[in-house]
Design brief:
By secondary structure, the protein is α/β, with parallel strands linked by helices.
């Protein structure tokens, strides 16, 4: 696992650590101090006066002992020399946050090519340049130059996120933190001059803390065939979900000036994803809708889905989306209907969707879903729980969570204000993902079912 020291180093050097609050080198260094990282951290600056009471070195060469990871945050013109010192020191992993390379055009490309030549004959591996680097929720490695006050850090979870864009990555990182969605690892790899998306997907494919791999890419930095082969192998073990940007003509031009990537045809990428077993998301919302489903739900054995609702209109919307998504909605058998009729009023609709009506209670949900799961007639359940219904007790949440014991996916849909959000958050923490619209719930179930067909 040649990338391991990016995520679990015993010693880290911050080259360009600053004495001035607000500077990138200051934020990166203080993030290590304010976090829970247990290794050694060495600030490096030509001004060797202490930073927050910590001894400062003028060069990585003068640090005693070995260094596993170096984070470079110096101006562009100094990166070449600093990287050479890291290679001579035998540093295994280097993150170059500094920008001003291939994203800046031909001159920048030449500078970046020089960096690649610099490390070609060494064992040093590089993430970047022009990136945020990594955040690991377990080891608490945090090389982001964004303060924790302004950008949240998610708690531990099993979703990994790779981003070619630092801005997209940081926004999603902050959003995940606010939504209480856990993360295993976050990697912003920028221009990807050495370690690219293929290397990272391969590493995460073998990472025991990661169950779902998500990625935002603008264009491949490495070899296309290598990427497809790695994705094909990894997707057999765990889902790989990718959001590809730069599919339009104007978007392709924007990509070229952002990370120096060649975006390529959107159709070609979509075809390659399909051949490689990659699940393609069309929006960043879909990216994490799917990830949340995969992170907590078992993979269904088929596409026979039952919709259970206490709101007829939401049931109709879910039915429409299910048909568009080619999910099967078989009606319950007479045997199954007979097993649930005792908790139903005569006006309940026992088709698919099963409409528990506007006076539904927790018992109707529990009996209906449990009997459906036990019957073997369905591969998964979409439970539309409109908590505003006055007869629906709060313990419906506990009962839905308990039904996870049947090892079939249960995806919920709930919309509303503070009261609904409180119960939805409890459901999510209990391992049942909740979506605010029927369409998003259905699409998440479809992603699970599609993966199950492989």
């Amino acid at each position: 696992m040649f990338l391991e020291t990016f995520f679990n180093p015993k010693s880290v050097a911050i080259i360009g650590a600053s004495h001035k609050p607000g500077k990138i080198g200051y934020v990166v260094f203080t993030n290590f101090l304010s976090g829970l990282f247990n290794g050694k951290v060495y600030p490096i600056n030509q001004d060797t006066s202490p930073i927050l009471g910590h001894k400062v070195y003028d060069s990585i060469s003068n640090i005693p002992g070995s260094i596993d990871l170096a984070v470079i945050v110096v101006p562009t013109k100094f990166v070449q020399g600093v990287l050479s010192e890291c290679a001579k020191k035998g540093v295994k992993s280097v993150i170059i946050i500094s920008s001003g390379f291939s994203e800046m055009g031909e001159d920048g490309k030449r500078l970046e090519e020089d960096l690649k030549k610099n490390i070609r004959a060494t064992k040093t591996r590089v993430i970047g340049p022009n990136c945020l680097g990594v955040y690991d929720s377990s080891s608490q490695i945090d090389t982001l130059f964004l303060s924790r006050k302004r950008c949240g850090r998610p708690d531990q979870g099993n979703i990994a996120f790779i981003s070619q864009s630092g801005a997209v990555g940081s926004t999603i990182l902050d959003w995940l933190s606010e939504e209480n969605i856990g993360m295993s690892k976050f990697i912003s790899y920028g221009n990807g001059m050495d370690v690219d998306e293929s290397d990272l997907i391969e590493y995460l494919g073998n990472d025991s803390k990661t169950k779902v791999i998500t990625a935002y890419i603008e264009g491949l930095k490495g070899d296309g065939k290598k990427f497809m082969n790695i994705c094909k192998n990894v997707s057999r073990k765990k889902p790989v979900i990718i959001l590809k940007a730069g599919k339009t003509k104007k978007g392709t031009e924007a990509v070229s000036s952002h990370t120096g990537s060649l975006a390529g045809s959107g159709r070609i990428y979509s075809a390659a994803f399909k051949q490689s077993g990659v699940i393609e998301a069309e929006t960043w919302q879909e990216l994490f809708d799917y990830a949340r489903a995969f992170s907590s739900q078992p993979i269904p054995e088929g596409e026979k889905i039952l919709i259970v609702t206490d709101g007829g209109g939401f049931g109709v919307l879910a039915t429409d989306e299910s048909e568009r998504s080619s999910l099967e909605l078989p009606k319950p058998s007479e045997k199954l209907k007979n097993r649930i009729k005792h908790v139903m009023p005569p006006y309940a609709i026992l088709k698919n969707p099963i409409d528990l009506t506007g006076d539904a209670d927790a018992k109707r949900y529990k009996v209906t879903i449990e009997e459906a799961l036990k019957s073997g007639e369905y591969d998964g359940i979409i439970a539309i729980t409109l908590f505003q219904v006055p007869t629906l007790e709060e313990d419906v949440v506990d009962q839905l969570i308990e039904l996870k014991k049947y090892k079939k996916p249960i995806i919920a849909c709930a919309a509303g204000g503070n009261y609904s959000n409180k119960l939805s958050e409890k459901l999510t923490k209990g391992g049942v993902p909740v979506y605010p619209t029927p369409e998003r719930a259905v699409k998440a179930m479809k992603a699970l079912a599609e993966y199950g067909k492989k």
